[in-house]
Amino acid sequence: MRNCIVREAHRIVRSAACPLIGAGAAVLILLTQPFIAMAEVSPAPVLFPAAPAAPSALAPGISIRLTPTAPAAGDVMIVRLTTQAGASVSGQFAGRSIHFALDESVEQADGEAHYIGLLGLDGLFPAGVYTLTLQVVGLDGEAAQTLTPVRVRSRRAYLEHVRLSPALAGTLDPLVNQEEALAFAQLYAGFTPQKWWDRPLHWPARGKLVAVYGNRRAYNGVNLGTYHSGIDISAVRGTPVRAAAPGRVVAVREFVIRGLTVVIDHGRGVFTAYCHLSQSDVLEGQVVNAGDVIGQVGSTGRSQGPHVHFELAVGGVPVDPTYWMRVALP
Ligand SMILES: [Zn+2]
Fold it and tell me: Of 101, 215, 253, 294, which residue has the fewest beta carbons closer than 10 angstroms?
């Protein structure tokens, strides 16, 4: 692998060629401003930081816990709420809805219920202070609303310059990118309350991690304003690709950019996708366990060498999966 040094914005940064995406042509530039975007995900919705909200007094009997207290782009925001049993709970953050489910990991005391909601922050999520709005409607019909200010931190991102072979230049068509982004937004929008997993995500393939989540990419000098929506694991063609967690296969489909892809629904708005496969070994609707072989490593779609692009989506958007491969998502 060839390393070189480039000077950008009064900063000297190292750059490295990536074997998968145009050997000798990849240059990483540390951006002084957080983010833009990626390779496989569409431009994120424009979200404007709300004015900092004054923490409102919680209605009696309601408590809220947010983890992490100041999430970054690419993180999963975990909202835990304790209130009276039988209440209905809903929430919104930056224009998106948060789905809540009963948190079975906590013992439900008499008359009390613990709820949990997961919301992914995409890799382009602008830093700022936003308002978390939660509504609780008790069995008696009485409604309470709480407003909580949440600071979202920026995420360090690099710009990767990738030289694409002429055969793949068609994958840079903005329309193609928009269509694929829409297809995945629809796949990831599902929500079923049942949680299928109880362990950290299983590594999808034996191989080498060659690209992390969140970097922006310019292909042949074209920056589509997208970010790398997953991680890339380089492996020999034909290496088995395994389900990261139990779930139900919701898509086995050929995409222009992601190539042959398997998408699994793990419940609670959590999905994983396995892309650029040479073949799939599952059917839509099939239930799989963690570690089950679902396909083989290939190089279909916008890929220049055998690898699996692995995505984790939570609450509708791709997040950084690496932490959740060591720690079980709650
Ligand atoms: Zn990738």
Answer: 253
